[in-house]
Records
---
Amino acid sequence: MKLARFLGLAVILTGVFFAVFAAEGTEDEIRYVEVKKPFQNVYVRLDPKSEIIRQVKKGEYLELLSKGELWYKVKVDGKDGFLESKAGRVVNKKGAPVITLLLYIVLLLGCAGGVVLYIKKQQISPSSAAGNFDDVDLDDDELD
C-alpha cells in the first residue's frame, strides 16, 4: 500500500513539475539575451564607437527590449543599451534549462525505481506459481 501511495505521489509531482517548470512561456513573458561570448560591450547607442554602459561576461542574462538583425536592445544596470547579436542568443527563461533537466531526470529515475520495486514485490516465485505437488501421493484409483 505504501508503494501505491508513492507511485501516486510521483505521478502528481510529475504533473506539477511539467506545469511549473517545463511549460513554454507566453509571448507576454520577459525574454532574455544569454551572453555567449566573454567580455562583450553594451553600448549607449547603436554604434560601436559610442559610450560603453558596461562590459558583460559570458553566461550573464540581460533583459531583451527589442531585436534587430545585428543588434539586441537590452536593459543593463537599469539603462537601455545595445549588444551585438553575435555576442548572445535569445532565451525565454533565465538560466533554468539545466536545473529543469536535472529535476526531470531525478523525478523520472525515482518513478522508474518505484515501478521496478513494485513489480519485484508483486512477482510470484516459480515454485508457488506451478504448485508444489511433491508431497502429494496420488493413486491411479483415486483419479477415477
---
Amino acid sequence: MNADLGNGRDIRPHARDDRPATLRVDDLSIEFSGARGTARVVDGASLEVWPGEIVGLIGESGSGKTMTALSVLGLLPKRARIASGTISLAGETLTGKSEREMRGIRGNRVALIPQDALRALNPVLRVGRQVGEPYELHRRLGRTQSHERAVDLLDSVHLPDAGVRAREYPHQYSGGMQQRAMIAMGLALEPELLIADEPTTALDVTVQAQVLRLLREIRDTHGTAILFITHDLGVIVELCDWVYVMYAGAILERAPVARLFERPSHPYTRALLRSTPTVRTVQEELLSIPGQIPSPYELPEGCRFADRCERRFERCTREPEIMEVEAGHGARCWLLDEGGA
C-alpha cells in the first residue's frame, strides 16, 4: 500500500482514563531453545493497548512481533518460554496461568486474526459452523442457535449473502472473504482485545483497504482494542493510533502514529521510512537498509542496530534505555542523549 507517511493527520483521542490498559506487556523476554542453544527472541519488550485504540507493532521478519502476540495468547511453541516479564489483560495477570485457564480467555476475551485465513480455517467444515463454534464452546448454545448467530456475524462483517455463504466451505471463498470470516469468528464473543497478525499481507490492495476499513469500524462501533502486527508502514499510517517499532526482539521506538512519521527519532525508524514508497517519493530512489537483522543466538552487546546504522559512534557499544523525546514518544538511541537525534 502506498501512503503519504507524512500526512500529519490528527491523533485520535485515546480512552486512557482510570481504567487499566486492555493489554499491558511489561519487560517481556522470551527464550527459544534450539540446536544452537538458547535464543532471546524477545528481549525486555513493553507495550500498552488501551480501550478503543488500534496499536501497531511493526518490524522486519524475525524481529519478535509474532512471538510477542503468541505469548499474550498463551500459545508459544513448545521450545519457547517466557523468561521474564508480565502480561496483563484489563489488570488481570496472564503470565503463569494454566492452559485450562487460558482456554477460557482465548476466543472469549482475546481473539486472534491470523495472517493466513485459509490455513486457519478447517477445510472440511462449513464456514458457518466454524464461525459459530465459539458460541458452542464458551456459551453452551445449541447448533441451531450458534448457526443463526454465525450468519449475523458474517453479515456484520459485510459478507454478501451471509445466509448462503455460511453453508459453504473455505475453498469456495475468496481471500478477502476468508479473512472476513476469521474476523467474524474473532468478534463472536465481543472480546476486549483483537490481535491481528499481518491479516492483510496476502490480499490485493483493494481487498486490503476493505479489511482495514472493517477493523476501524469494529473499533469505532464496539470500542475494541486492537493490536495490529505488520511490516507495512503504509498500513500503520492508514489504521493505527500508536505504533511500536520492534527490531531484533527489542522495542526501539514508540509514539503516536502522526508524531512518529513527522519526527522519527531512531535511525532504524528513519531507515524504514526511507525504504518505504510514499506519494512524495514515487519518482525518488528508495534506499535499502544495508546488512541484516542479527541472529537471536548472537545478539550484539550494545545497540542491536549499530552494525547497520550510518550514525553509530563509540557509545553504541553499550545498549541504551528508551529515552523520552516528548510525552508519549520515546526511542532507544544514544543520539538522543547527545542531542543529535
